[in-house]
Amino acid sequence: MWIAPAAALRHLPEDGTVGLTYEDGGGRTVRAAARIVRRSPRAQFVLVRAEPPLPVPALRLSSPEAMTETMPVMIVGRLAQPPHETRVAVGRIAGIRTVGGAPEELVLDRRCAWAGAVVDMHGALVGFAVEADADTVRPVTLRTADLGEPLVFLWPGTVSATEAGRPVDFRIEAMCFEPAQGKPEVELVLESRPGEQRRFAAAPAGESAYTVRAVPLPARPGAARLRATLVYPGGSMQCAVEEVSITADGRKMSLGRISRIRREDRRVLITFADGTELAAAAVEMPALRADFGGYMLELDAFKALEIAIDGREDLPPHITCIVTVSAGGRMIARHTSRIRVVAEPGAVAARGAATRPVGTMPATVPARPGCREDLEIHVIPAGLAPGFVQGEFNVPRAEVRIACARGHAGDGPRAAARVRIINRGRQTLSALKAQVVWERDAVTVQSDVIDVIAACGRLRPGDVAALYVELPAAAPADASAGRLSVRIVGD
Q1: Model confidence at 225: pLDDT above 80
Q2: Which domain holds residue 295?
Q3: Beta strands in 318-474 (DSSP E)
Q4: Domain for residue 1, yes or no?
Q5: What is the residue-averaged pLDDT of the chain?
């Protein structure tokens, strides 16, 4: 987190992001994203947050007592016009305007052609020249009072239908700018359904970090209800059916894990919510208890030509989260956000299997068994049009998206895969490399090795890295025609 002059980032929208590239101590190029999280119209500052955090030591801040007239300073900035060079100018403080005894504005003895940081001869930050071709400086002593109430960040921003019913580790960052009386107290309120609020006291986990372990969506009594469409020879019906277990070729499974059941000649084709398929010769399924317009019916599932499951009916689309920060017996910040509740990874692609077959690809791929049980990996085909370029940082939410695929004009559509890597472990991943592999018969095609961390940043526990990966031209344009998998090739 750092403060910057608003003029330096004036071209960005209120919630805009900017890409950062720097070299670490080992000579490696690292990419990150910075997002404006707060603006200060009065002081013309912006507060910027980087993900992953930049390994840059903080500058010492000059004290109000050290700001005196005739004190020499340096103004460091970058020209707004080409050649966009970084420049340094030397000047002196010619005047100080105070409010309530504290410096409010500094006046220099010269105008500077660029905006930027103003430091003294000992390297301490005095303030910012917030406008080019001006002689005024906003001192850093304004930083706390003008930034207002604490900033609050909450993770995760998304949970799957399965995760919603299990304990989840919530991470909260409450960044206070004014000195607080003791350690601030943080409380998390979860409202999974209207009028149903549960309160949890957050435990300190660092200077400004807190954690809460809670179940986002507690299970209700009775069987789960699934949205279903049943197609019979004479018509179809939509209703809510209760969760049951079925058996396919001796393998027992819950109906909620399935996206579609379709009868074809002498076999039953089962498409799971994660995108995998199973062709079963024998399927056993009990009668389904269905709610049809408020009437409970028993349906003979064996007479249906097709059964499509469209997720849990009793699952809300989101969970409301309220974070309150208190200090000295009074509330100093309140943050409200929503956690999206989504279907299992791959469920949307699986529901479209009737029009776009998913082939025999595995949706969940083991990552080096015995070594990387902390990773959950999903892969599905993704078509690319010529010239396709997409890139997006979504920070600081749990899911980070960045495109690694590039279409090539003139080559026609290129095969690509969409990969999701979820850190299910307890440690932050700072090194991870992967490779997408396409196979059919005796043909194997491999993508370039992808440095996941360089592309998406460090993966904290629960974070998701989503990538679009282009396959070499040897693979057909439709990657679903073969088997897709992901290899972890190094870390």
Answers
A1: yes
A2: 225-312
A3: 318-327, 330-342, 375-381, 399-403, 416-423, 433-440, 443-446, 450-451, 464-470
A4: yes
A5: 72
